[in-house]
């Protein structure tokens, strides 16, 4: 039985009447076998708080009490064996088991970190390989109707992949399998909404046109560069002596060695002044 908004409200009313339970969102999801995605798909604005308000039991919150038993490896294996026993003719997929047991996929990955769903099936004695249906159980008309329902629910806005994954009744893989992209789904839905018929063949989205930004091309045009107009850095002729290999350029003069203090003050004729300057420079460390 698939979860609906009315069924979740009835479950919330039944849940708050249970004696000595910890009335929290996590405890509710575990006891009533509801996945977080199901809760937020039917109550997208506030989730758990919105559900309590819709059920009229928003004042029945209780943080103390008996919590639902948490999942572990043994309990997951036991629940999978019970699912296989009670549903012998059902294709064993992770989505169906999680929906039946009311757990999230992250719970399986947390307790079976190496290969997740495959390790859980192997430990339960089942074939660890992934099973897929021979054909999709969704038709093109059902997908287009579901896409239109999500658009109308969100106020006729352009739907994102995150919103489709949360609110639609099918996965994104189903959309990509039939349409290839969200853009192709959108233009086919527009034709379907206008005519009431599924396009055959499916319409292809037009190629994306990139409009140039003309503000980037408003520079003034450059003047033409004529051959008779030499470049400024070629205007000055090269000296002939630089072009003559027999006339090398003069050598670079080598710097003279630094002068001593006596040589530096040798031009001072007054002996007393020269000695006083030498004393001051030597006292200053020069």
First CA to last CA: what distance? 100 Å
Q: Unreliable segments (pLDDT under 50, ≥5 consecutive)?
A: none
Radius of gyration: 42 Å
| Fraction of residues in H or I helices | 40-55%
Task: Record the SSE blueprint.
Elements: H1 5-16, H2 25-31, H3 36-42, H4 48-55, H5 73-86, H6 94-101, H7 105-111, H8 117-123, H9 140-153, H10 161-167, H11 172-178, H12 182-195, H13 240-243, H14 261-264, H15 271-283
Protein architecture, described:
There is one protein chain. With 286 residues, the chain is an all-alpha fold. Among the domains are: 5-55; 73-123; 140-195. It is built from 15 helices and no strands. It has helices spanning 5-16, 25-31, 36-42, 48-55, 73-86, 94-101, 105-111, 117-123, 140-153, 161-167, 172-178, 182-195, 240-243, 261-264, 271-283. The longest helix has 14 residues, at 73-86. The radius of gyration is 42 Å and the shape is elongated. This is Division inhibitor protein. Residues 235-261 are annotated as: Disordered. Residues 246-258 have a biased composition (Pro residues). It comes from Stratiformator vulcanicus. InterPro entries: Homeodomain-like_sf (IPR009057).
In short:
The protein is mainly alpha-helical and 286 residues long. It has helices spanning 5-16, 25-31, 36-42, 48-55, 73-86, 94-101, 105-111, 117-123, 140-153, 161-167, 172-178, 182-195, 240-243, 261-264, 271-283.
List descriptors.
0% strand, Division inhibitor protein, mainly alpha, Homeodomain-like_sf, 15 helices, 286 residues
